[in-house]
Amino acid sequence: MLNNSGNDFVNFVVKEFGELAELFKQKNEQYGGRDPLANFRTGALMEKGFDTWPAMFDEAKNYQRKHVAHVQNCNISGPKVDESLKDIAVYAVIMLYMRTKYLEQIAEVEKDV
User: Fold this and answer.
1) For 59, how many CA atoms within 13 A lie in the half-sphere containing its CB?
2) Helix (H) or strand (E) holding 108
3) Ramachandran region of residue 80, left (φ > 0), alpha (ψ -120 to 50) or beta?
4) What are the E-state strand segments in the chain?
5) How many whole angstroms separate alpha carbon 10 and alpha carbon 17?
6) What is the pTM of this model?
7) Cα–Cα distance measured from residue 4 to residue 113, given in angstroms and rounded to the nearest whole number
8) In whole angstroms, what is the distance from residue 43 CA to residue 62 CA?
9) Contacts 24+ apart (CB under 8 A), 105-108
10) What are the tens digits of pLDDT across the range 13-69?
11) Burial degree of 97 (CB within 10 A; 0-12, 13-18, 19+)
């Protein structure tokens, strides 16, 4: 029988968000003093020739797509699906940051016009 407890669901999601935050911090520390968006920036430069927020956003979607494809191919019981789902979530938040910075940039340009 499925456990449909609302508290179980909420507690699980909140716990996972906390663990995802810690995972992100650990991975981000691996970059040291480097640009934390270096891989997205380099990928955008290689693919499009420029490293604008939209270009880096597209690159992040490409990183995320690999994990989405893995989940699609393996389904719920496949190996390392949990790792891919966590990576998808982290990429989504990184992309949210990129979108926020882009919208700030647009607002700044429009303010100067």
Assistant:
1) 21
2) helix 81-112
3) left
4) none
5) 11
6) 0.88
7) 54
8) 10
9) 105/53
10) 999 999 999 988 888 887 766 888 999 999 999 999 999 999 999 999 999 999 999
11) middle
Closest CA to 40 of 64, 22, 4, 75: 64
Q: How far is CA 76 from CA 2, 16, 102, 106, in A?
A: 15, 17, 35, 40
State which H helix or E strand residue 110 sits in: helix 81-112
> Which residues, 6+ apart, have CB-to-CB distance to 25 below 8 Å?
none
Q: Confirm if 88 and 67 have CB atoms less than 8 A apart.
A: yes
* Structure token digits, residue 80: 């390392």
CA 110 to chain centre: 28
Place of tokens 């955008």: 44
Question: Which residue, chain included where needed, has tokens 């003093």?
Answer: 33
